């Protein structure tokens, strides 16, 4: 009689969040850059680097790349926070809410006060809607990916022979 071996696979939350944040930053940073290039938003791709670099530099190609790196760094930090606090939340809504939370922090609360972005009252409606949707989708990507990894038990159950 063959003895069935069970392998217990546990995802390392820290490395998973690092990897997810890295790819979330690459993907959604590229989407933000595309939206800026197509003039859906007036927020430059390097807006997160605004407090650290001159605005004229951030409007250049190398400035956009610096901004992309800042967005990747933010995505890693945000993923780590989500994994630590919300990793057992199921479904898409916690991630969407998390993205909206970060939009409020960056575009309504902190961003205008540190000259990262202009106040929401002077932004165009296209910019507001585009940025809101981008951050909502970014949060969904992070939250739902983490939810699938840490709440989906299908992959951890042993396979039944003959089914």
Task: Characterize the structure shown.
By secondary structure, the chain is an all-alpha fold. The chain is 61% helix and 0% strand. The protein has helices spanning 13-37, 55-58, 61-86, 93-109, 125-151. It contains 5 helices and no strands. It has one domain (13-151).
- Which blocks of ≥5 consecutive residues have pLDDT under 50? none
Biggest β-sheet, characterized?
A: none
Helix/strand-derived category reads mainly alpha
Mean pLDDT: 88
How is this fold's topology laid out?
Layout: H1 13-37, H2 55-58, H3 61-86, H4 93-109, H5 125-151
Summarize the structure.
The chain has 163 residues and is an all-alpha fold. The protein has helices spanning 13-37, 55-58, 61-86, 93-109, 125-151. The protein has one domain.
Features:
mainly alpha, 61% helix, 5 helices, 163 residues
